[in-house]
Amino acid sequence: MWTKKNVALGGKATQSERLRNEWAAFSSAGNAIDGNRDSYFYHGSCIHTSGGDNPWWRVDLLQVYTITSVTITNRGDCCGERISGARILIGKHLKDNGINNPHGRATQSDLLKGEWAAFSHASNAIDGNRDSFFYHGSCTHTSGGDNPWWRVDLLQVYTITSVTITNRGDCCGERISGAQILIGKHLKNNGINNPQSVLIFTVQSLIQK
Question: Which of 21, 57, 183, 196 gives 15 a disulfide partner, CB atoms 3.0 to 4.6 angstroms apart?
Answer without folding.
Answer: 57
